[in-house]
Amino acid sequence: MSGPRPGPGSGRVLVTVAALVAALGLGALAPAEAAPGRAPAGSADTAHGFASLEGGTTGGAGGEVVTVTTQADLERYAAAEEPYVIRVAGTIKAEPFGANIAVASDKTLIGVGTAGELVQGELHLAPGTHNVIIRNLTIRDSYVEGDWDCKDTDFDGIQLDTAHHVWIDHNRFSRICDGQLDVRKDSEYVTVSYNRFEDNNKTFGIGWTPNVRTQITIDHNWFRGTKQRNPSADNCAYAHLYNNYLTAQADPGDPVWTYGNWSRGLTKMVIENSYYDGVQHPYQADATAELVQRGSILKDTTGRHEAWGAAFEPRDFYDYRPDPAAAVPALVSRFSGPQKKLGHHSTATQPSLDPEEESRS
Fold this sequence. Notes:
Layout: H1 10-23, E1 64-68, H2 71-78, E2 84-88, E3 91-93, E4 99-102, E5 107-111, E6 117-119, E7 121-125, E8 130-135, E9 138-140, E10 158-161, E11 164-169, E12 172-174, E13 181-184, E14 188-193, E15 196-202, E16 204-207, E17 214-219, E18 222-228, E19 232-234, E20 236-242, E21 245-247, E22 261-264, E23 268-272, E24 275-277, E25 283-285, E26 290-294, E27 297-299, H3 328-335, H4 355-359
Parallel strand pairs: 1-2, 2-5, 3-6, 4-7, 5-8, 6-9, 7-10, 8-11, 9-12, 10-13, 11-14, 12-15, 13-16, 14-17, 15-18, 16-19, 17-20, 18-21, 19-22, 20-23, 21-24, 22-25, 23-26, 24-27
Subcellular location: Secreted
Main location: secreted
Keywords: Carbohydrate metabolism, Lyase, Polysaccharide degradation, Secreted, Signal
């Protein structure tokens, strides 16, 4: 069956968005592809959402800035006790296959332009790790050929175990054997923004705990060619999902385990202004969980579309401004994943771009 279509007033939103796009010289876009005429929130260099609370997340700010091109140097600086801003320049191929790179507290890892890559390896945040920023990297190709389910490995892209204050932003994950991103065991104050999750089975899981402590913001991510856990959130105290884009779902013939967002256990989940295109089971909730959905667009979706309970109000925790759901395809496809302008400066940050400059990028 087809899911709900945009309601009354959506045409006015599209007209406004299209006018802004035209004013920026972005060319004519179809209504579903129109992008807002402003620099996206993800171009900022400070954490937003839950990662901004209770002291915020600053990573290695104030520490030495280093540039790494080898696994040995990445391991050395990422595991150090003191803060570092670590610029990853070029491709680092981890050895042995599936190797863990330990990331300690007070670190920023950022790719230089679109060239920073970790291949066949994992970034691992052990219990107690805090104040970590991981931005602008491609993490790819720990997939074991022919092992689609990956039950015998634990080769994640990024794994958090009881960590707190973590911002994961503008990365690309592709072909990881287990979870591309696993936020596990009571990790708290996490924001996951403007990432691309591609070509994977078990994509983005949250939980693996009987406790209900995790607070997580998930916004402006593109899930493309992924099968399940987009994300799956089990026993999250608060899971706020907005302006995410789900497309080209892998293996949609699976009647149960191909799905979009799942609120599980005692999770309280809020979904806002997202865009689901051709997705089976776009959002669903356990009977014990709560899920509020508002403002999303569903195109050619099938299966479970479940929302019940009051969940929570994200604005009780932080300010944010969701983009119109109709703008999500163009905005997320353009601005998610590694960006050419990030990671070049000596502080590994740069001022947010104004809309005119961003339109020329």
